[in-house]
Amino acid sequence: THIGRKLAHMKTLQVLRFADNKLGDLAVDMLCTAISNCQKLRELDLSCNGFKETGAKAVAMLVADHEVLAKLDLHWNEISGAGGLALANALMENAASNGRLRDVNLAWNNLGSGNAVPTCEAFARIFSERSTLRHLDISYNKLDAKCCSILAEGLQGNHSLFDLHVAGNAAYVDAIGFLVPVESADDMPLQRCTSISGGADENCWVSVRWTEQLFEYTAMCSGPAPAKAHDVWLLTSFDHYKPIRMMTLADDNSEDKRYVICRAVPPGRYQYFFQVDDEAVAAIDNPVIELDEPVSVTLEPIEEGEPPKKTHTKTVNVGVAPLRPKGVDIGENVQPRKLDTPISVAEVQQLRPRVPSLFASYRLDTNDLLNKCFEEDWRRSKLNKYVKDVDTRQRLKEILRPHYNSLRLIYKHFAALEKADTAIPALALNDFTEILETFDIIDDRTCKLKDGDMVFIAANVLDKGDGHGDMTRPDHTHIIHVKNPLIVDNSLMRFQWLEAIVRLADQKYKKSGDAETLGEAMEILLESHILPYEKDYRKPIDWRTEELFTEAVQQVYSRHMKTIRAAFDDYAMRDAGSGLPPYICLPEFNAFCEAANALDGRFTAREVSLAFTLAMMTQVNETDKRRHLEMSFVEFLEAVGRIVYMREGYDSAQLPALLDSFLANNVATRVPPAKPAEGDEEEEGQANDPAEETDTDSPQAAAPAAEGEADTPHE
Q: Rounded CA gap, 362 and 655, in Å?
C-alpha cells in the first residue's frame, strides 16, 4: 500500500521492474491501480509473481488504453483462462487505439489449460487485424495442436511480428516465420536455431539477429538452365532444405535468365543449393564444398500430379551470414511469412552482400573474435604476475580492450615485415626499436633506448609451459628439452607484445612519476603515442571491405579463376592422406611473387611477408596452432589483390583494371600451370576452403564468419 501511494505520484515514471517479488493477485491489482496515472511508463515487468486471473485482469485494464507502454513482461506467473483472454483483448484494444505495445512476454504461464480456444482466437485476431506486435513469447504454455492451428491461421497474413517464441507448445516456427502445428514431439524438426545466449530457440529473426541475404542463380553461369519447369528453387540448411521458389527479375534485359530471392538468414555458416528441373545443383559461381555425408531432400514436383522426388547430394554451396549489429534493422526486402516481394535489377545491385560470394568463406573480424584474442593474449602473458593488484589488472583490461585491435594491427605490421626467411611473424629487437621510434616513445628522460631494450627482454621471457621447457619420458629415465616451433627465439610473439605495451607504460609514465597509477600511465601512452597513428594501420584492413570485396573485383577473379587456381596449386602443399585442403606458407608465397615478377619499387621483398600476413584471417591461438601460417585459397585471393594494392601506380578507382592486368600479364604468363593431384580436382570458380571454428559456444560454433578460431587444416 505504501509503495502504491508513492508510485501514484510518480507521473514521470518510465520503467518499473517488480520481478520475482511474489506479489500475488491482490498486490498486483493495487499496483496497477497506483500506476494508472503513470502515462509515461514505457516498460513494465511483473514476471515471477505468482498472480492469476485477478492480477491478469488488472494488468489488462492498465494496458488496454495506455498509449506509451512498449514492453510488457508477465512470464512465469499462473495466468490462464479468463485472465489470458482479458490480456489478449487488452492487447487488441491497445493496438486499435494506436498504442505502442510491441514486446510482450507471456512465457511459462498456463494459457493452454482449461478452455484455451477463446484466448487463442483473440491472439489470432491480433495477428490478422493488427500490425503492432513485433515480439511475442508464449513459450511453455501447454498449447495443444488445435490451439496452435488457430494461431497459425491468424498468423498467415501477418508480416509485422518478427519474433514468435512457441517452445513448449505443440508447434514450431519455421525459418520463414510460419507457425507449424505438430501432433507429437516426433514431428518437430531435428535441428533448431540456437540463440546467442546458447539456449534453444525458434527461428527468431530479431532475438538471434538474423540478417538479409540475397540468393542468385543465373542460368548457364551458375549452372544449367531449367528446361522443364522454367523455375528454380532454393534449398537452405537453416530451413531444413525445404524448396522455396525463386523469382525472375522482371526488368532484366540480360541474355541469361536470373533467378533471385531475399531470405532472412541466421548468423554463421550455412549450406544451400538449388533445384533446377528435378536435379539438385550447387552453383559453380558460388563457394562449393563436399559434405562427408549426403543430404537427403525432397524436391518440388515438376509436373502437376507428379509425386515429389526424393534425392540426395554431397555437393552444396556454402555461405556465411554476419551477426547483425544491435539496433540495425534486418532489411526492407525480407518480411516474416512473405517470399514474393518483387526485386528489380537495381535492387539486386544494392542487395548484393558487401562480401561477394567468392569471398563468402573469408571470416571477417568481429568484436567477439577480437575479445577472444585479447583474453588469450592476456592469459598467455605474464601480466597476471606483473600486475599483482586485482583492481589494477581489471582497470588495465578495461583500458586496453577497446584498443586491442589497433595494438594487434601494429604488431601484425611490424612483425610481418621482411620475414620471408623465418616464415613466422614475430617482433625482433630491431622491429621493437623501430616501433618505439615510429611512435615517439623513446626519449632522453623517461624511456631511453636501453629502457626499451630492457622492456623487450622482460616481455620476451616465457612463462613455464608457453615455450621451451622440459618433458619427462614415460619411463621417467630421460629429460627431453622441448621447443615450441611456433615461438621464435629472441622475438616477441603477439601475447608478449601485449605485455610489452603494459611494461612500456609503466616504464615511461608511472616509474617516472608522470602518472600515479599504471592505469593512468596506460591511458597516457595510448592517447599520446598509439591512437594518433592507428588510422595508418587500419587503412590496409579497411581496404579489404571497401575496395577488394566488391562485385567488380569478383568479376575479374572469376574471369581468371583457372589461372589463379593453377598458380595456387603449383605452390600449395598437401598433407598426404589427410583429405584436408591444400595451403601455401610464406616461403612458397615469396616464390610465387618472384615467379610472377610482382616486385617493384614500392612492393619490395620487405613487403612480401606483409601482404601474406595481412591477407590471413585472424586466429585466436597463434602459439599452439599453425593456422595463421597456412594460407587457404580464399586468403590467397586476397593476397594477390594486396600485391596489386601495394605495387607502384595503385589507384583505388582502377583496382579491377590493375588486377586484371596483373593476372593476365604477370600470373598467367609467368607462373606455370599445375596439374592437380589425383582426387584434388575442383570446379572452376570455387573458393573452396571455409574456415571452421572450434573454440566457441556461440550458435556459429561450426561457422567461419562470425566469431571464433578458424581450424587449421594441418595440426
A: 20
